[in-house]
Amino acid sequence: MSHPLYIAFIWHQHQPLYKSPGSGVSLSSSQQYRLPWVRLHGTKDYLDLVLLLERYPKLHQTVNLVPSLILQLEDYIAGTAFDPYLTASLTPDEQLTQQQREFIIQHFFDANHHTLIDPHPRYAELYQQRQDKGQAWCLANWELPDYGDLLAWHNLAWIDPLFWDDPEIAAWLKQGRNFTLSDRQRIYSKQREILSRIIPQHRKMQEAGQLEVTTTPYTHPILPLLADTNSGRVAVPNMTLPKQRFQWAEDIPRHLRKAWDLYKDRFGQIPRGLWPSEQSVSPAILPDIINQGYKWICSDEAVLGWTLKHLFHRDGAGNVEQPELLYRPYRLQTAEGDLSIVFRDHRLSDLIGFTYGAMPAKKAAADLVGHLQAIAKKQRDSHSEQPWLVTIALDGENCWEFYSQDGKPFLEALYQSLSDEPHLKLVTVSEFLEEFPATAIIPGGQLHSGSWVDGSFTTWIGDPAKNRAWDYLTEARKMLASHPEATEENNPEAWEALYAAEGSDWFWWFGAGHSSNQDAIFDRLFREHLFGIYKALNEPIPPYLKQPVEIHAAQANHTPQGFIHPVIDGKGDEQDWDKAGRIEIGGARGTMHNSSVIQRLWYGVDHLNFYLRLDFKSGAAPGRDLPTELNLLWFYPEKTMVNSPIPLADVPDAAPLNYHFHHLLEVNLLTQSIQFREAGDNHQWHPRFSRAQVAINSCLELAVPWADLQVPPDYPLRLILVLADEGRFSNYLPENALIPIEVP
Q: What is the pLDDT of residue 555?
């Protein structure tokens, strides 16, 4: 018989422990929270996702709720959690201190302005004032109603559009300005009301059979690194490890048991699935997961690839070749018993997480359904007796900030299409495994040690700052071990502080790779959790914990830190490019330096385009201060293809200018027109059609579709920028290098 294509969506809902142990002890007591994201994401992202799904009863999905998130939601519902943003919001306008006013101006626009600020005229007006006139001007000129409105809008904008038909919320949105303290108090009450519905709604839908709720180790630790930090060298043999080896495998069953017990209490049944934090797995953690009673776990296709020693390639449309290897559950065999595991399709998950938000909702939904239909056709053509399961697993909260109306139009279009498509069937993971138990076997010891990020742990260990944090954690863990009298029963404060410090998020933000304007707060929180261990044991706090783990200075040159989706308008929106790679122009050759007309270069990608931005010196103009032609030349390393030299006069015979290139995009900086060419035989260049976009205003912004370059996913290429005047070489950047790019 032919099976439909089964699809398992798994949405991962997680926030780290933002509460400072300095203002209380247990996770349930009144505490000061350093950041507001549990409250704000709680009103925007957790409830609406399942309420939307409930409207499409044929569609079944899985949602993972991390215990540390649930506990913090409960603090806010109880009214015992206060963060600096909330405290300011509930302060009478006239009582705001100078320090609070500075904080409000700096942080109350912490949101994607395209989707959360711009749609609301008063919020957008205040944002534009800060952007155009600066923080100091706002501090000097804003009056009390300006602060009152900003305090209200920061909270209102994070209320999901699904709830805008609530009469009170609708009235606030219509009111727009002149918000009072009483209004803000009511908005806070509305936030708590929305938060209070999250867990009951998940429980109700699980009991109805449309939803499966899974859990994660208690505070979201990287279990393989708790077992042994040396596991970092499985994927990266030459990794520089912390000075001290962290080996506290005994903490793993504690995290698993606490997650299990909390789940049983909140959902009235035992959990079946476990989302290992960061989809990180290793052979060492399997026995504890099995012994606790979990039935299945999930990880990433990169981990499966390493495990099977198989590199997953994709065709030109981005679909997996040899799909039968990825789209099936596996059975991990160990001496303690067996455990099922599913591996997510990394690219389909990333399309939702990082790309579809930049597309029209219906087009994005149609693209995803098209990929699934193509996989279903491959399944039918294979005449496989075994049903296929496509696992799409991703962060269920952060991506929606980049979607119009928090993703509501996209999800409605997607869910309607999936409900109407007879060959596609959405299931929970447990539903599928109960009907079609895993038959493919992976010996437990063969499982690769890695995570969803490149199948390695480099995001959490190996960098000097990350390693320093591990050493601090090791010292604190040894201190706790030296107090055998301090048990979880008689000294829960010490153990709760340990569990919090073992969470993955602190290591994510330390060092290279990821950065935000709140890095220093994450650094402080990590150290405060370590403080809590020493305080609970009545031990002196080591002096090094009173200093930041690292200096949180703005980076100059750095590689891309994530996907970007800039609006191509030549204005260089700071939020659009915050995850882009950056190259300051200057260096050894001395031909371009800090007084150069081009100050810096930004670059990045998503699944649709390559993006480039050039920042000019203030007042610079093409044709006067810089040449009139910008040439982008693409070089494809280790690929056999026709290549031609740069078609300009006076090009120096030196690398990399004397390389031959395959694609050329010429931008006329005066007219903003483009010409696209492809190399041909005998050093010729042939015109080709291009859908590239260019805009020049305060800077140059450019988007080049991957379709123009006709390159498949996971493809390496290199880029050089050459400036010219009337066909004569003028200069190039970056200096002595090519920009390395990976097609996602």
A: 64
DSSP 8-state class, residue 276:
-
Has residue 591 got a pLDDT over 60? no
Partners of residue 439 on adjacent β-strands: none
Compute the distance between CA of residue 354 and CA of residue 350 in angstroms, rounded to an integer: 6
Give the DSSP letter of residue 278.
G
Q: If you average pLDDT over residues 626-636, what whole number do you get?
A: 91
Average pLDDT over residues 264-277: 98
SS3 category, 464: helix
Handedness of CA 547, 34, 461, 542 (dihedral sign): positive
187 with 154: CB under 8 angstroms?
A: no
Please give the Cα distance from 46 to 12 (Å, whole number).
10
pLDDT band for position 735 (cuts 50, 70, 90)? confident
**pTM of the prediction?**
0.91
Summary mean pLDDT of the chain: 93
pLDDT at 503 over 90: yes
Other C-beta atoms lying within 10 Å of the C-beta of residue 658? 11
Terminal Cα-to-Cα distance of the chain (whole angstroms): 36
Is the pLDDT at 638 greater than 70? The verdict is: yes
Answer whether residue 590 shows pLDDT above 90: no
Question: In Å, how far from its chain's centre is CA 209?
Answer: 29
Which string of DSSP letters, residue by residue, matches 100-129?
HHHHHHHHTT-S-IIIIITTSHHHHHHHHH
Which has more pLDDT, 553 or 117? 117
Instruction: Indicate whether 589 pLDDT > 60.
Output: no
Q: Rounded to whole angstroms, how far apart are CA atoms 583 and 81?
A: 42
Side-chain half-sphere exposure of 523, counting CA atoms within 13 A: 21
C-alpha distances in Å from residue 147, one per residue of 100, 132, 151, 191, 462: 10, 17, 6, 20, 44
Query: Counting every residue, how long is the chain?
Result: 744
Q: Are 664 and 643 in contact (CB under 8 A)?
A: no
Contact 241, 464 (CB under 8 A): no
Q: Phi and psi of 633, rounded to 5°?
A: -125, 130
Give the strand pairing for 424-426 and 389-395: unpaired
Record the tokens describing residue 562, joined without a space. 């994530």
Q: DSSP for 556-614?
A: SSB---S------SSS--TTTTTTSEEEES--TT-SS-TTSSEEEEEEEE-SSEEEEEE
Give, as one character, the DSSP assignment of residue 659.
S
Structure letter (DSSP) for residue 43:
I
Cis amide linkage into residue 242, ω under 30° from 0: no
Distance CA 278, CA 298 (A): 10
Q: Which among 636, 558, 627, 603 has a CA at the least distance from the CA of 702? A: 603
Residue with tokens 């299409």: 417
Token readout for 217 is 């180790």
* Residue 553: CB atoms within 10 Å: 7
Question: Are the C-beta atoms of 694 and 299 separated by less than 8 Å?
Answer: no
Q: Which stretches within 134-166 are classed as H helix?
A: 135-141, 144-156
Q: How far is CA 44 from CA 47, 63, 164, 675, 717, in A?
A: 8, 16, 11, 44, 39
Site of tokens 């009298």: 485
d(CA 86, CA 92): 12
Burial of 98 (0-12, 13-18, 19+ CB in 10 A): exposed
Whole-number Å distance between alpha carbons of 549 and 466: 9
The mean per-residue pLDDT over the stretch 647-675 comes to 93
**Structure-block tokens of residue 353:** 């997480």
Beta bridge partners of 632: 665, 721
- Model pLDDT for residues 26-65, shown as the tens digit of each residue: 444 457 999 999 999 999 999 999 999 999 999 999 999 9
What are the structure tokens assigned to 9, written together? 């969506």
Greatest extent of the chain over all pairs of C-alpha atoms, in Å: 81
Chain centre distance of CA 551: 23
CB atoms within 10 A of CB 125: 15
- The conformation of residue 232, written as its DSSP 8-state character, comes to G
Nearest to 492 by CA among 540, 533, 541: 533
